Amino acid sequence: MLNIVMFGPPGSGKGTQSKLLAEKLNLVHISTGDIFRQEMEEKTELGILAARYIDKGHLVPDEVLAGMFQTFLDEHNNGLGFVCDGFPRTLPQAHELDQLMLNRQLEVSLVLALDVEEREIIDRMIKRATTDGRADDTREIIHERLKVYRKQTQPLMDYYQKQGKLHVIRGMHSIDEIHQYLLDLIRQHCK
Ligand code: AMP
After folding, report:
1. Considering only CA atoms, which residue is closest to atom 5 of ligand 1?
2. What angle do CA 50, 97, 103 make, to 5 degrees?
3. Do the beta carbons of residue 139 and residue 127 sit within 8 Å?
4. Which ligand 1 atom sits nearest the alpha carbon of residue 31?
5. Quick count: other Cβ atoms within 10 Å of Cβ 160?
6. Where are the alpha helices (DSSP H) in 77-138?
7. How far is the CA of 183 from the centre of ligand 1 (A)?
8. CA-CA distance, 80 to 132, in Å (whole number)?
9. Residue 24 C-alpha to ligand 1 middle, in angstroms?
10. Per-residue pLDDT, 190
């Protein structure tokens, strides 16, 4: 079973690429960001709590996320593999995912990290703000999110590198080119 973690800074295109891969390979797409946005829209308790962090460009604390991924997987998995988009973002979350996989005698198959220059990211996110209207895509919050990414999420690359699962992909190409490249990588892995 193919279980992919899509990794990269905010604005790197990991959401777009995750959706394309999930569609193409018939995998479940799990986006913790989408889950939070849905909860925020519905003004649930979780949504109201998460908004306090998301609106500032900070990560929602690990304690709040604990169990959330497992619940989503139980509800949506249907025995298929998954593409994980935006989870894990911290080392405790990566440990939780490993444990969860271990309990099911599964494992993360590969981690695909999109690497995009910060200047390009900022431009993309400012553009996205005008098309998608995301409240956390203002210039100030984008800078905060990039800072948080460098400090809390980037260290995970080391973690997955040591497990021999990390593949870094330059994200400065077209959406379609990157998609094809990712598909080739995955096919190589599955040989
Ligand atoms: P995303 O759509 O993946 O960029 O997520 C939007 C926001 O949701 C992030 O900036 C975080 O504040 C929050 N978020 C999403 N996933 C996580 C996670 N795994 N851990 C903590 N916060 C998260």
Report:
1. 33
2. 130
3. no
4. 3
5. 19
6. 91-103, 118-132
7. 25
8. 30
9. 24
10. 87
Q: Is 72 exposed, middle or buried (0-12, 13-18, 19+ CB in 10 A)?
A: middle
Q: b/e for 46-59, b at 16 or more Cβ within 10 A?
A: bbebbbebbeebbb
Cα distances (Å, whole numbers) of residue 179 to 23, 24, 31, 93, 115 = 11, 10, 18, 26, 14
- Residue whose structure tokens are 């193919």: 2
Say yes or no: CB of residue 36 within 6 Å of ligand 1.
Answer: yes
The atom of ligand 1 lying closest to the CA of 61 is 21
User: Among residues 123, 61, 122, 138, which one has the least CA distance to residue 93?
Assistant: 61
Residue 128 and residue 137 in contact, taking contact as beta carbons nearer than 8 Å:
yes
Ranges of H-type helices in 14-90: 14-25, 32-41, 45-54, 62-65, 68-76
pLDDT tens string 21-77: 999 999 999 999 999 999 999 999 999 999 999 999 999 999 999 888 888 888 886
pLDDT range class, residue 16, cuts 50, 70, 90: very high
Rounded Cα distance between 35 and 15, Å, is 13
How many C-beta atoms surround the C-beta of residue 133 within 10 A? 8
The protein residue with its alpha carbon nearest to ligand 1, atom 6, reads 33
